[in-house]
Amino acid sequence: MNSDFVVAVHSLVYLAHRPGETLSSEEIAANVCTHPARVRKVMSLLRRQGLVVAREGAGGGFRLGRDPSGVTLADISRAMQAGSLAPSWCSGDPDMDCVVGANMREVMREVFCGAERQLEAYFGGITIGGLLERIRERSPV
Amino acid sequence: MNSDFVVAVHSLVYLAHRPGETLSSEEIAANVCTHPARVRKVMSLLRRQGLVVAREGAGGGFRLGRDPSGVTLADISRAMQAGSLAPSWCSGDPDMDCVVGANMREVMREVFCGAERQLEAYFGGITIGGLLERIRERSPV
DNA sequence: AAAACTGTAACTGATATAATTACAGTCAAA
DNA sequence: TTTGACTGTAATTATATCAGTTACAGTTTT
Question: What's this model's pTM, rounded to 2 decimal places?
Answer without folding.
Answer: 0.94
